[in-house]
Amino acid sequence: MLKSAIIKIHTIRDRIKRLADYAINPDKTEQGEMTSVLNLDSVATASNEMDATKDYWDKIYGVQGYHIIQSFKPGEVSKEQCHEIGRTLAKRIFGDEYEVIVSTHLDKSHCHNHIVANSVNRLNGKKFRCQIGTYYNIRDVSDAICLENGLSVIDSTKESSSKHYAEWKAEKDGNLTIRQQIRNDIDELIPQAHNFRYLLRWLEDTKSYEIDIKGKYPKVKPPFAQVWIRIGPKLGKYYTQDELERRIEQSMDRQERRTAPTYRPMSHYYKVLTRKRPKLTYYQRLYWHYVYLIRRIKKRQTPPKLTKYMQAEIWKLHRYQKQYLFMREHNIVGWEDLAQIQTDILAKMENLQSERTELYKSRRVEPSEEKDERVAEIGQELKTLRQQAKLCEYIKEDAPTIEKRLARITDERQHLQTERTKAKSVGVQYR
């Protein structure tokens, strides 16, 4: 393995502002000259912007962020080169999706970078998953950047020298290899597996892998590959059968420890209880609850045997979410509001189409860039309005159906609760 810089990763579970203030400390960064941000407005407002992103996506609890430390040997890099390498590392790991602070500390004999990243994706609200494999991925990216900058490296080990040239070239270019995708799939499923065979079954059931457990090493064939890949040393040091069994056991131990109640100060509960929640109208609540139920089914930890009807509802989940957000944005209370908004949208579309027709005629006589730009703007506005008009039609179609289905679910739950109460009164366990 290439190891020209040392990488450490820490999970931030308390306020991210504490780590942000430490990272941008003026005494360590030459009065803030060696600090910068990615996907943020400024260093001064970075922690507030990160908190605002969490609040917007309602992800204010759990892991707050990640703290990556990248250290170099004394005299190996200049402070400017160190900071640029840190920025490149943050850009390749987090891209345009996560908010990041990058600072270079010069208070010690060696230059080192502090990278503080928000755990919540600013574009879709998903959280960054940091697992055992993630550390090695980040370390490999750091090593590749150091090699590109001509920094010193140690001799390659037997494992790295046995890589196929195509795989080495793909990793150097930052592309995803077949083995890396297999490692990512294994990392994703380890927290859900109870043993090694269960892990293989999960790969087969949820990822459509082909499995062969004959011979010395188990083999897998993912749907995106034409060859079999051994679960052995060539896949990676931490992806042999023995290592995977050890990682699964550690994951199960961590899950058991998480079940123990943790102490939280009273201020935390006060903040939860006093936080203002937006008031939802009847149909907004209806959609929210239905989407919540479908997402619970989708995220179930064992592969469910779903009916074709429920599979169709899961496929429509994104459509229902769009309808819910559209109703919240336009504060739709009832059918009258929906009809009025749809009428306004159609009227705007008619006016824009008339304006575009006039521009077409005028442009034939007297062409100009301004007219071309306006035609392009109208095209984008019409595209958005057509999507909104389509959403209105979907809401008319779906809302009554959702209302009936939720009523049926509620009736079934009440019936089940009644039967359990009756059975309990006579000393019988009802399932």
> What number of structural domains do the residues give?
3
Q: Which CATH class of the largest domain applies here?
A: Alpha Beta
- CA-based gyration radius: 28 Å
Q: What general outline do the C-alpha atoms trace? A: globular
Give the helix level as a range of percent. 55-70%
Residue runs with pLDDT of under 50 for 5 or more positions: 153-162
Name given to the CATH architecture of the largest domain? 2-Layer Sandwich
Oligomer: single chain
Q: Characterize the largest beta sheet: strand count, sense, and whether it forms a barrel.
A: 5 strands, antiparallel
Strand content: 5-15%
Rounded mean pLDDT score: 79
Number of DSSP E strands: 8
Number of helices: 15
Sheet/helix structural class = alpha+beta
Q: What is the rounded distance between the termini?
A: 55 Å
Strand order of the largest sheet: 1-3-5-4-2
Helix-strand sequence: EHEHEHEEHHHHHEEEHHHHHHH
| CATH fold-level assignment of the largest domain | BirA Bifunctional Protein, domain 2
